[in-house]
Amino acid sequence: MTAFKALGLEEYLLKAIADMGFETPSEVQKKAIPILLNRGTDMVSLAQTGTGKTAAFGFPMLQKIDPNNRTTQGLILSPTRELCLQITNEMEAYGKYMPGLNVTAIYGGASITEQARQIKKGAQIIVATPGRMKDMIGRGLIDISKIEYCVLDEADEMLNMGFYEDISEILSHSPKAKSTWLFSATMPKQVSTIAKNFMNSPVEITVGTKNVGSDQVSHEYYVVNARDRYNALKRLADANPDIFSVIFCRTKRDTQKVAEKLIEDGYNAGAIHGDLSQNQRDLVMKSFRNRQIQMLVATDVAARGIDVDDITHVINYQLPDETEIYTHRSGRTGRAGKTGVSMVIVSKSEVRKIKAIEKRIQKKFVAKEIPSGIEICEVQMFNLANNIKNSEINPEIDAYLPVINEVLSDFSKEELIQKVFSVEFTRFLNYYKDSKDLNASADQGGSGGNEDSTRYFINVGARDDFDWMSLKDFLRDLLNLGKEEVYRVDVKDSFSFFNTDTVHQDMVMNAFNGFKLEGRNINIEISKDTGRKNRGGGRNKRKGKRGAGNERKGQFKKRKSKGKGRKKK
């Protein structure tokens, strides 16, 4: 709280901040708020999605307006309905201790009459999408001739969506003397044009480096044959049981098709794209926020404005046409100081595009391989073990224990464990035992190591504040191995896998004999799979509508837990 107070915010805003549990301002808030509070200036702020931009312009605007004056004093333009409503809700929360404050959302797909009625009541701040705002100005339903502050949020997104003319028309009805604050993740030429044409000597602040991806996100790519793209997606989901992800496709048709196939194959999935009605989109987003949907398949346009906490993975089922769009995609994860993973599924002909994106975001991609069947079996088995270990006992089961104990009385503890884990392990093993290797060779990439490789399981993971980079560094330091001698590091929620050359196997096992991390025993085991190519056996022999495309259909639905699992059919 002291840190927010030092920025110059008034007590009524500090009280709202305390209610929301904010303790420390983000970098963009530290840079932007003092300038916007103390100087009547235009501003261009470049910062990634998820860095706290709404508060960066929201607090200064609220502190500067007069809630006792019913004239519209502030306008915030945003690219989508979802983002418009999100900003409105946040502004209302920030201004909860400002009597008389009216923040009104203006967007398409809702009653224009009702929105006009809200404006007529006196809205000091309007949050709007460009299309509906232009329409209402044209009908004489909104007057912005006296606004003092105008925010263009996600400016690059609005311009990518073709709103340049609408923005120009809207701003032509506003006073020249207003302060204009532009917030954007990237700085393409059109954003520079907006700044040049509609702003007066703006102050520019940058969080990080221009057009650079977040340091909280690691980037991976997987090379497969184009026909195996969907099966690769399913394997990546199976190899990450706690996945909570957004999957990006280029077209509305592909988005709907992939979502339908995932649902048919037993995953908790949903689609969001432009062909859905507003009510359908609202229902999908509500289910995703409540984690009833584990995998949200989206187009780039429909995903703009998605602000959901704790997204673990962004999966690029197809690469975007424009490299800067990748920045926005990957920015959906690794937010609020947490780490995330951006995965890209590419064909061999698309690998060259990875280099272009690397140059754009100034981050390196790690070439990885689609997991084999035995790897997925192991991940699912260890995930089940950790779920059992961490689950709370439901006391209502006590009434059934006498009968259960009687039924299982002939089995020892070891036999019961074997039976419990055989259920999950056997399902995946039977399914994947004939599955083919999905990895395609590419000149670029490579995963390190040689053919004589050992793969290990270790009982530390993301819950222990490891990502693949920090775990690799930890292992290299502990084992005194070189830069390329620890590889194929895959971090899950509470456990991980990694490889070394087999020549180091005894040394690795001895190093962890009795090893403790912060007082906890660290266990390491040798995995049966080396994590290399040609791991999965022969070709898929299952019959179905699309051959390998039905690789999972009707089988092995993941047990639902706390809304994150896959639905049973």
Your description of this structure?
- The chain has 3 domains: 2-206, P-loop containing nucleotide triphosphate hydrolases (Rossmann fold); 217-371, P-loop containing nucleotide triphosphate hydrolases (Rossmann fold); 453-526, Alpha-Beta Plaits, CATH 3.30.70.330.
- Helix 7 (130-138) packs across helix 9 and helix 15 packs across helix 16 (351-361).
- Residues 443-449 and 532-569 have low confidence and may be disordered.
- Helix content is 38%, strand content 15%.
- The chain is an alpha/beta fold and 569 residues long.
- The longest helix is centred in the last third of the chain and has 20 residues, at 413-432.
- The chain is built from 21 helices and 20 strands.
Short description:
With 569 residues, the chain is an alpha/beta fold. The protein has three domains: 2-206, Rossmann fold, CATH 3.40.50.300; 217-371, P-loop containing nucleotide triphosphate hydrolases (Rossmann fold, 3-Layer(aba) Sandwich), CATH 3.40.50; 453-526, RRM (RNA recognition motif) domain (Alpha-Beta Plaits), CATH 3.30.70. One of its GO terms (molecular function) is nucleic acid binding.
